[in-house]
Design a protein that fits this description.
Helix 2 packs across helix 3 and helix 2 crosses helix 6. A four-stranded antiparallel sheet has the order 1-2-5-6, with helices on one face. Strands 4-3-7-8 form a four-stranded parallel sheet. By secondary structure, it is α/β, with parallel strands linked by helices.
Length: 173
């Protein structure tokens, strides 16, 4: 699947099962993730090391970590379906080009969801700007929370501190 076209980029399919209880939303994958077709592929991104500490698995083995996520009923996806962006930073996204994913269908297909966690500010902003007000069936029972970005660009917080913030997902599994 080609996920880039000029400066236009497209998200990848979600990692999830219908039994998912937690959904983790990013904004849209960075260049390295799009090239490798793997979520959070940048070697300095803390996502997989954090998930391995919380749920187990080898953070260097993508397929193993996908299985760990699915077994623990944790889904991963992105708010943004497509946009124009130069580089990998969320700050480089052309806000006028954003199209969001179909969350009506996702929520219907995942009836056991209890919580949605945002991996950083941009995912949260775009969700509440575009998605929350337009979803056909409001999902009021969901817990929503922004967590510190696992991106290497978020260097003000170390991995150990991020793990402690991310530990909250365990309460919903």
């Amino acid at each position: 699947m080609i996920c880039t076209q000029g400066d236009s980029i497209y998200c990848m399919p979600p990692i999830s099962t219908p039994a998912a209880k937690v959904l983790i939303l990013g904004s849209i994958p960075g260049q390295k993730s799009l090239e490798e077709q793997c979520y959070y592929a940048h070697p300095r991104n803390g996502f997989w090391p954090i998930m391995a500490q919380l749920l187990g698995g080898n953070p260097r083995e993508y397929r193993e970590m996908v299985t760990v996520m699915q077994t623990n009923r944790v889904g991963i996806w992105d708010v943004i379906k497509s946009c124009e962006r130069s580089g990998s930073l969320d700050s480089a996204i052309d806000n006028n080009s954003i199209k969001v994913n179909n969350f009506d269908k996702f929520f219907r297909d995942h009836p056991f969801l209890k919580a949605v966690f945002f991996n950083g500010r941009k995912a949260e902003q775009e969700y509440f700007r575009f998605v929350e007000q337009t979803i056909f069936q409001k999902v009021e029972k969901l817990h929503y929370q922004r967590l510190p970005s696992t991106s290497p660009a978020m260097a003000t917080m170390g991995l150990a501190e991020k793990v402690e913030h991310w530990r909250i997902i365990l309460k919903f599994l």
